Structures are given as C-alpha cells and as structure tokens.
Amino acid sequence: MKQNWFYRKSSIRKLWIGGWVLLALSLIAEFFVKLHPHFKLEEIFAFHAWFGFLACVGMVIVARLLGFLIRRKDDYYDM
Amino acid sequence: MICSLMHPGLLLILSGLFIPLFKGTARTVFILIIPLLALASTWSMSPGNSCSIEYLGFELSMIYMDSISRLFITVFALMVFTGSLYCCKQARSIELSAAFIYAGGSISVVLAGDLITLFIFWELMALASTLVIWSTGTESSRRAGMRYIVVHLLGGVILMAGIAAYVQQTGSIEFNAMQADSLATVLILCGFLLNAGAPPLTAWLADAYPETSFSGMVFLSAFTTKTAVYVLLRGFPGTDILIVIGLFMIFYGILYALLENDIRRILAYSIINQVGFMMCGIGIGTEMALNGAAAHAFVHIIYKALMLMSAGSVLYMTGKRKCTDLGGLVQSMPVTAVCGIIGALAISSFPLTSGFVTKSLITQSSIDEHMFWVWLLLQAASAASFLYAGLKFPWFVFFHKDSGLRPDDPPWNMQLGMILFAFLCILLGAFPDLLYAMLPYTVNYAPYTIAHTFTHLQLMFFAGLAFFVMLPYMKSSLTISLDFDWFYRRLGPQLFISFIQTLSQVGQHLAAELGTIRSASALVTRSVSNLSLAFNMRMVLLVFAICLMYILF
Predict the structure, then answer these.
(1) Which are the contacts of B452, defined by CB distance < 8 A and separation ≥ 6?
(2) Chain A residue with minimal CA distance to B250?
(3) B170-200 pLDDT per residue, tens
(4) Taking CA atoms, what residue in B is nearest to A40?
(5) Residue B17, C-beta contacts closer than 8 angstroms, at least 6 positions apart
(6) How many CB atoms lie within 10 A of CB B219?
(7) What residues does B64 pair with on adjacent strands?
C-alpha cells in the first residue's frame, strides 16, 4: 500500500525545508517592512521572533517543572 | 403569553421539553428549526425593555435587548443550531433535551433586565448543564457531574447572597454596571467569576466537561463561561482585578494544557485560557477592549466548538481520547483533520482566521492604555496558545506517530456541522467587518495592517519552531495534573474518613467501657460502612471546605 503523503520520507524533508525557508523569509522581510513599534522593547531587531520563541521555550520548561510537583498517575483518584 | 412566545430563551427551554416526543427525521427537523426561530425572533426584536411581569412585588423585565445581548444570543443560537446538526442522528434525546434547556437558560440570562430574572435562569443553567453531563450515563460522568453541580450551587448561593444584599442596599433590582466596592457587589462578582472558571475554583471545568459524551462537551463549552463573560461585561466593565485574574487564567490554561494527555481536557484548559483573554479585555475596560472581549467570546464559541466537534468525531469513531493512544489520523479522517486544524489556527489567532481579528482588539487596547506588562504577557500567551492548542492538538491526534488506527470520517451530519463552523472561522477572519458591525461600540481599528500582520506571523512562526525544538519535552504520558479539586476529592474525604474512624473507635471504646448497649456501637460501625451516608457526608464536608476556602480567599 502506498504510504500517506505526510508519512513519506521525501515529503517530511520537503516540509522541513519549507518551514526553514518560511522562518528565514520572516526574518529577512523585517528589512523591508516599515514597523510601528509601540514600546521600546519592540525596536530591537526581530523582537517578535525571539520573544515568541523564548516565551514558548520558557513555558514548556515551567510546565515541566510544575509537572514534577503536580503530575500523578491517571488513576490517582480511582484508588 | 405573547412575549413568552417571542422570548428566544423560553422558546428553547419549552421546546427542549418536547424533544423526547419526536423520533428520527421529525426530531432532526424539530431541533434544527427551533434555534433558527430563536435567531429570527432575536433579530426581529427592537432594543430596550419588554415583557415585564410582576413577581414578589418586583417588576421583572424578562427581555432587555441591546447590541451586546443581540451579539451573544446570535452566537448562542448559532451554536445550538450547529451543535444539533452535528449530533442530530447520534445524540440521545435526553442529552439534546438538557442541552436545549441549558442553552435556553443562558439566552434568558443574557436577555434578563434585572438581577432576579438573571439569577433564576443562572440556576436553571447549572441544573440543565449537570443533566447534560449525567446524560452520558457512565459512572465517571455521574461522579464528575456531582462535583460539578456542588461547585455551581455554591456559586449560586454566593450570587444570591450578593443579589439579596444589593437589592437591600439600593432598593433596585435593575442589572446595571456596578463597582466592586461593597460586600454585596463583591459577592455578585465572585458568583459571576465562579462560572467564568476563575481561580481558585477553576478545576470544575476541566474536571467535568471531558467526562461527557462526544457531543455533550460541544454544547457545554459554549454557554456557562461565555454567559459569565457577558454578565461581567455588563456588570463590571473596567474592574482592574479582572486583568490580574484574566492573566492568571491565561497562564494556568497554558501550563495545564501542556501537561495534559486527554485531548478533550487540553481543549477544556484552553477554554479557561481563552476566557482569560476576555477577562483582560473587560478589566481594561475601554470601548475597544470591551468590543474585543465581546467579539472574542463570539468567535471563541465557534472555533472552540469546531475543535471539540473534531475531537468528538475522533472519540466517536475510535472511542479514544488520549494523545498517547492517537496519532496519524489524517490518513483516514481528512475532513475531521482539516476542520480541526482550521479551529486550531483560529484559536492561535492566525491571520485570516476569526481569532486574529478579535484578539488583536484586546492587545491593541492594552497598547493604547500603555499597559506594557499586560501587553507583553498577552504577546507571550498568544505565542504559547499556538504551541499548546494550535499545534499540540492537531499534531498528536492527526500526525505524529502512526497509531495504526484507520477510522473513517464521521457520518455526514457530523461533517456538515464541522464544515459550517470552519467556514465561519475563515469568513469572519477574512471579512472582520461582518462581526465588527455587530459590536456594541463603533470599531476604529484595522487588523490587517502590514506591520501588525507581519509581526504576528513572525511570532507564530517562531512559536512553531519552539514547538518542534521542545517536542521531546512535550511528550504526553499517562498522567493527570493535580488541581484545586484535590482539596475536595482527596484531602476532604480522607480527613473525613479518619475523623469518622476516630469517632467510631471512641464510640466502641466507650461502649465497651460502660458495658452498655451493644447495638449502639454496631450502629456507628454500620453507618461508617454505609456508602451512601459516607457519600452524602462527603458532599456536606466538601461544601463546607469550599465555603471556608472562599472566605479565606
């Protein structure tokens, strides 16, 4: 049986390349788009890119740490 | 009589009672026509008060219509229509019946012109929504429903105490904007907040909703929290504390959703996260922020129902709802996958979807008010929303590892419901003026400026990068996360059991000491082993514990 498009090695490669191209384009485009920063912080180059990235990484780390504290086996309340 | 026929809420409640009388096609036709009639009657109503009745010496006004109430009722009626379409052939009559009464209750709350009418339908909503949970018929839903109703009845008691004190103080039952500066108004605010899923009693939502049937949660997700948003919007605009509570809810939702394994529970946490955005808007309180909160509630109902219909279809076709059991379903359920992804993009406020044009109103209003920290946190939350809902949900269900499951797309009516809402998500995103025209205040805002669209896309793309970089740390596991409900599901019962055990030991000891009536000690021991008594007592203790928490809080 033919594998689904999303699960073929070749298409996964294409998706990755497409993703990296998008990221690169969104950085390069910053040179050509006139932005209207509202706060000082926004004036730093590619603020939204690195801030979005760091916020997400930070959130996953905080969730992991919180997980150590509050995670229980899923039959916890059934016992 | 005429006005009760016109009243869209009462129309739904009454017709809900008749649903079990119909079978097959007749039932389908009936449940599809009624919400359309409610919609038509809403749009034919003129603004202002109507439908007054005398009750206990008060003049109740059942209908107060203005642009805010029209907006909310429109989306509620749309929700009933699409929800009914989604499950018209599959759902049990009892569930549909409860869902109609529940929806009718929330429409009646939205229409209420005074606090007493509001309270009556508020309680009807609590009861009917519990019936939606119980109509699932499983043991876990029975228990979850019991916990759910106790929390909501507590909220009702707090609200009623507030209303009684408010009427005593002001002599008026009219429901207008108020300040949270007296005990009465603070109690009313607490009662409203409880239904919005605010801390500390946040756990009821993610505890109960995922225990319902595949279609029950679609209905539940729409009404309780959004009715709370509506009453807060009307009663407490510009109350600063709502910004803090909103931000708490936003990050609570994100963190718990990141830890969660059950897909419908992920979506339940994301309800709290999204309601947090609306609360921030209400707290900021400018015309633009209030517009944003109202508009966000409108589109949130649509995309959240869409995501839940998608998750519900997966549950209906596979019987599974955990990330660890699912994956690779895009191969055999393309329609469900595409609709789910559109919902996921909308909740992440991706440009050209409905979430983008409404969330931007809220963030822009924080900029206009020079609230730097609020804006920064909202931006971080927007990025993270894409991570946990926009990517986590579709990734673990439709892509990721191949689970080997090959279910088909669900029956045509379920597909049609999803397609309708997916279409609306894109329509409102592409033509925001359709929605902006319905908002309470004039909108002077263009979401699609080059700078805004560009910076938002940058935020999304790099949040996406973070998702794939952090994927190894986001693997789901067979766990649950403890929440505030631990106090009444674990600590309370355990304290109670040890208390009873001590009591019975003392009793036995005393009886033996005195050498008297054996039967007395037997009675005590028997009642300890009597499950229903222990259960009832547990409930009493639970209410007590919650009351105590509220007082301390």
Answers:
(1) B360
(2) A59
(3) 988 999 899 988 999 999 999 999 999 998 8
(4) B372
(5) B97, B101
(6) 30
(7) B49
